[in-house]
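Protocol step 4 of 6: structure prediction from sequence.
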Amino acid sequence: MRRLFGLLFCLVLLLALTTACMATSENEVLSKIGEAENAVREAFEAVLAAENVGANVSGLMARLNEAGGFLARAEMAYNNGDLDKAFNGADQCFALANGVLDEALALKSLALADEQVRQTQTLLFSFVGAAVFVVALFLVWILFKPFYVRKLLKMKPEVASYAED
C-alpha cells in the first residue's frame, strides 16, 4: 500500500511538472500579442508627442522599429503554430515598447522644460534690451541737448520775403 501511494504521488508530481512546463496556450499567446500591439501603439503615440514638442527621437524610432520587428516575428510564429516563439517575441516586444514609452515621456518632459527656459530667457532678454535702449536714448538726449541749444541760439533769424518782384 505504501508503495502504491508513493508511486501514485510520483505520478501526480510528474503530471504537475509536465503541465507546468508545457507550451503556453493559444489564448495566452493571443493575449500577449494584443498587449504587445497596444504597447507599440502607445509608445508610437508618445514618441510622436515628444517629437512634436521638439525632442530628438531618432534613437527611439530605431528602438520602436525593433519592437515592431519582434511583434511581426511573434505574429508570424503564431501563424506557423510555434506558440513558445510567438509568446517570447511578443514578450520581448512588450518590454521594448514599454521602455520606449518611458523614454519618450521623459524626453517630452525634458523638451517642454527646455522650451520653458528658452521662452523665459527670450522674454527676459527682450525686457532688458528694451530698458537698455530707452536708457541709451535718454543719455544721448541729455548729452546732445546742450550742443543743439547752443547751435540754435547762435543762429541769426532771417526775414524772408514772399513778395514777388
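Step 5 (inspection) to follow. The chain has a mean pLDDT of 86.
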